[in-house]
Amino acid sequence: MVVSIASDHAGYELRQKVRKYLEEKGFEVLDGGAPNGTDSYSYVDAGIKVAEDVSSGKAERGIAICGTGIGISLVCNKYKGIRCALCTNEFMAKMSRQHNDAQILAFGERVVGLGVALGMIDAFFEEEFAGGRHATRVNGIKEIEEKHFK
Ligand code: RB5
Q1: What class, spelled out in words, does domain 2-148 have in CATH?
Q2: H-assigned helices in the chain
Q3: How many Å lie between the centroid of ligand 1 and the Cα of residue 110?
Protein backbone atom coordinates (compact mmCIF):
# COMPACT_ATOMS: atom_id res chain seq x y z
CA MET A 1 0.00 0.00 0.00
CA VAL A 2 1.18 3.51 -0.81
CA VAL A 3 0.95 5.97 2.09
CA SER A 4 1.47 9.72 1.82
CA ILE A 5 2.90 11.44 4.86
CA ALA A 6 3.58 15.13 5.41
CA SER A 7 4.08 17.56 8.26
CA ASP A 8 4.84 21.17 8.98
CA HIS A 9 7.97 22.11 10.98
CA ALA A 10 6.18 21.31 14.27
CA GLY A 11 5.55 17.73 13.15
CA TYR A 12 8.94 17.17 11.53
CA GLU A 13 10.65 15.07 14.23
CA LEU A 14 7.72 12.72 14.70
CA ARG A 15 7.32 12.43 10.92
CA GLN A 16 10.88 11.07 10.58
CA LYS A 17 10.14 8.30 13.07
CA VAL A 18 6.72 7.54 11.58
CA ARG A 19 8.17 7.32 8.08
CA LYS A 20 10.84 4.86 9.23
CA TYR A 21 8.18 2.77 11.01
CA LEU A 22 5.98 2.66 7.92
CA GLU A 23 8.89 1.69 5.69
CA GLU A 24 9.87 -1.08 8.10
CA LYS A 25 6.29 -2.36 7.92
CA GLY A 26 6.60 -2.59 4.14
CA PHE A 27 4.56 0.43 3.06
CA GLU A 28 5.68 2.56 0.13
CA VAL A 29 5.92 6.05 1.60
CA LEU A 30 5.48 9.35 -0.26
CA ASP A 31 7.15 11.81 2.09
CA GLY A 32 6.45 15.54 1.93
CA GLY A 33 6.24 18.76 3.84
CA ALA A 34 8.79 20.57 5.98
CA PRO A 35 12.43 19.80 5.03
CA ASN A 36 13.52 20.33 8.64
CA GLY A 37 12.14 21.13 12.06
CA THR A 38 13.70 24.55 12.40
CA ASP A 39 12.44 26.66 9.49
CA SER A 40 8.79 27.62 9.58
CA TYR A 41 6.68 25.62 7.10
CA SER A 42 2.92 26.03 6.84
CA TYR A 43 0.61 23.19 7.80
CA VAL A 44 -1.51 24.36 4.87
CA ASP A 45 1.14 23.30 2.34
CA ALA A 46 1.76 20.03 4.17
CA GLY A 47 -1.98 19.26 4.26
CA ILE A 48 -2.32 20.01 0.55
CA LYS A 49 0.43 17.47 -0.19
CA VAL A 50 -1.24 14.61 1.71
CA ALA A 51 -4.80 15.43 0.60
CA GLU A 52 -3.80 15.72 -3.07
CA ASP A 53 -1.86 12.46 -2.99
CA VAL A 54 -4.90 10.66 -1.54
CA SER A 55 -7.61 12.35 -3.58
CA SER A 56 -5.68 11.81 -6.83
CA GLY A 57 -5.21 8.12 -6.03
CA LYS A 58 -1.39 8.39 -5.86
CA ALA A 59 -1.68 7.14 -2.29
CA GLU A 60 -4.38 4.99 -0.71
CA ARG A 61 -3.96 6.45 2.79
CA GLY A 62 -2.35 9.47 4.38
CA ILE A 63 -0.80 10.55 7.63
CA ALA A 64 -0.83 14.26 8.44
CA ILE A 65 1.16 15.74 11.32
CA CYS A 66 1.48 19.26 12.69
CA GLY A 67 1.89 20.67 16.19
CA THR A 68 -1.62 19.83 17.35
CA GLY A 69 -2.92 18.04 14.26
CA ILE A 70 -5.73 20.59 14.10
CA GLY A 71 -4.53 22.86 11.29
CA ILE A 72 -3.44 20.08 8.97
CA SER A 73 -6.66 18.10 9.51
CA LEU A 74 -8.73 21.20 8.71
CA VAL A 75 -6.85 21.57 5.43
CA CYS A 76 -7.27 17.91 4.43
CA ASN A 77 -11.00 18.03 5.15
CA LYS A 78 -11.41 20.87 2.63
CA TYR A 79 -10.87 18.32 -0.13
CA LYS A 80 -13.95 16.71 -1.59
CA GLY A 81 -14.16 13.05 -0.67
CA ILE A 82 -11.44 13.24 1.95
CA ARG A 83 -12.21 12.14 5.49
CA CYS A 84 -9.31 13.10 7.70
CA ALA A 85 -9.59 12.06 11.35
CA LEU A 86 -7.74 14.00 14.04
CA CYS A 87 -6.98 11.43 16.73
CA THR A 88 -5.27 11.44 20.11
CA ASN A 89 -5.51 7.76 21.01
CA GLU A 90 -5.71 4.27 19.57
CA PHE A 91 -9.45 3.91 20.12
CA MET A 92 -10.18 7.01 18.04
CA ALA A 93 -7.88 5.80 15.26
CA LYS A 94 -9.63 2.41 15.25
CA MET A 95 -13.08 4.02 15.13
CA SER A 96 -12.00 6.44 12.40
CA ARG A 97 -11.67 3.41 10.13
CA GLN A 98 -14.55 1.28 11.43
CA HIS A 99 -17.20 3.99 11.57
CA ASN A 100 -15.94 6.89 9.45
CA ASP A 101 -13.91 5.17 6.72
CA ALA A 102 -11.23 7.83 7.15
CA GLN A 103 -8.41 7.76 4.60
CA ILE A 104 -6.16 10.21 6.43
CA LEU A 105 -5.03 10.01 10.06
CA ALA A 106 -3.94 13.31 11.64
CA PHE A 107 -2.22 13.90 14.96
CA GLY A 108 -0.01 16.42 16.71
CA GLU A 109 3.64 16.06 17.68
CA ARG A 110 3.03 18.45 20.58
CA VAL A 111 0.12 16.30 21.77
CA VAL A 112 1.04 12.62 21.45
CA GLY A 113 4.26 10.72 22.07
CA LEU A 114 5.85 8.21 19.70
CA GLY A 115 4.26 5.18 21.38
CA VAL A 116 0.73 6.57 21.05
CA ALA A 117 1.41 7.68 17.46
CA LEU A 118 2.59 4.22 16.40
CA GLY A 119 -0.31 2.54 18.22
CA MET A 120 -2.73 4.78 16.32
CA ILE A 121 -1.02 3.95 13.05
CA ASP A 122 -1.29 0.20 13.70
CA ALA A 123 -5.00 0.55 14.50
CA PHE A 124 -5.58 2.76 11.47
CA PHE A 125 -4.09 0.21 9.07
CA GLU A 126 -5.54 -2.88 10.73
CA GLU A 127 -9.18 -1.83 10.94
CA GLU A 128 -11.68 -2.12 8.11
CA PHE A 129 -14.75 0.01 7.48
CA ALA A 130 -17.78 -1.67 9.06
CA GLY A 131 -20.24 -0.45 6.38
CA GLY A 132 -23.97 -0.90 7.10
CA ARG A 133 -25.45 2.02 9.05
CA HIS A 134 -22.03 3.65 9.06
CA ALA A 135 -22.03 3.67 5.26
CA THR A 136 -25.38 5.49 5.36
CA ARG A 137 -23.79 8.18 7.54
CA VAL A 138 -20.68 8.48 5.38
CA ASN A 139 -23.01 8.82 2.39
CA GLY A 140 -24.68 11.66 4.29
CA ILE A 141 -21.32 13.45 4.39
CA LYS A 142 -20.95 12.88 0.65
CA GLU A 143 -24.38 14.44 0.05
CA ILE A 144 -23.25 17.58 1.88
CA GLU A 145 -20.18 17.69 -0.35
CA GLU A 146 -22.33 17.40 -3.48
CA LYS A 147 -24.34 20.42 -2.33
CA HIS A 148 -21.53 22.65 -1.12
CA PHE A 149 -18.38 21.77 -3.07
CA LYS A 150 -17.98 23.17 -6.57
C1 RB5 B 1 2.77 25.72 14.28
O2 RB5 B 1 3.34 26.54 15.23
C3 RB5 B 1 1.39 25.26 14.72
O4 RB5 B 1 0.50 26.34 14.70
C5 RB5 B 1 0.88 24.14 13.85
O6 RB5 B 1 1.79 23.11 13.83
C7 RB5 B 1 -0.45 23.51 14.24
O8 RB5 B 1 -0.44 23.13 15.59
C9 RB5 B 1 -1.65 24.24 13.84
O10 RB5 B 1 -2.78 23.77 13.94
Answers
A1: alpha beta
A2: 12-24, 43-55, 70-76, 90-98, 114-126, 133-148
A3: 9
